[in-house]
Amino acid sequence: MSLEERMRSAVAALLHAAGESQTELAAALGVSQAQVSRRQSGTAAWSLADCDAVAAHYGISAHDLLAGPTRAVEALPAGRRRMPGRAASASVPTSAARSAAGDGAI
C-alpha cells in the first residue's frame, strides 16, 4: 500500500470511527467538502500540511496517521470516538428529533 493510499484509508477510518462527515472534517481544516472528497478519491493529493492538520484535528500524531488506518484508529482518543448508537454525520436533526425537542424548524 502506498503512502497516499494509507493516508486516504486512515482518513476514511478516522471519519468513520469519529462519526464525522467529510463536510465536518473540511470545516475543521478550513477547506471545502469538495477538496476533501478530491483528496479522498485520489484526484488530488493530501499535502504534508494537510497531514499535520488532520492529525491535530483527531488528536493523534502524524506518524500514527501515516502508519495506516489501524494505527490511526487505535491512537484516536476515546473522547473523539463515535458514541454507540450515534449515527455518523448526525449534525442535522431528524424531524422526529426536532419534534421531540419541540422545534419544527431546522
SS elements, strand count: 0
Large-scale geometry: globular
Number of helices: 7
Q: Structural class, from secondary structure content?
A: mainly alpha
3D architecture notes:
- This protein has 106 residues and is mainly α.
- The protein is globular and about 30 Å long.
- The longest helix has 16 residues, at 3-18.
- It has seven helices and no strands.
- The N and C termini lie far apart (43 Å).
Characterize this entry briefly.
This protein has helices at residues 3-18, 22-29, 33-41, 48-58, 62-66, 69-75, 95-101. It is mainly alpha-helical and 106 residues long.
Helices and strands in order, then pairings?
Blueprint: H1 3-18, H2 22-29, H3 33-41, H4 48-58, H5 62-66, H6 69-75, H7 95-101
Helix pairs in contact: 1-6, 2-3
Notable traits:
mainly alpha; disordered C terminus; 106 residues; 7 helices
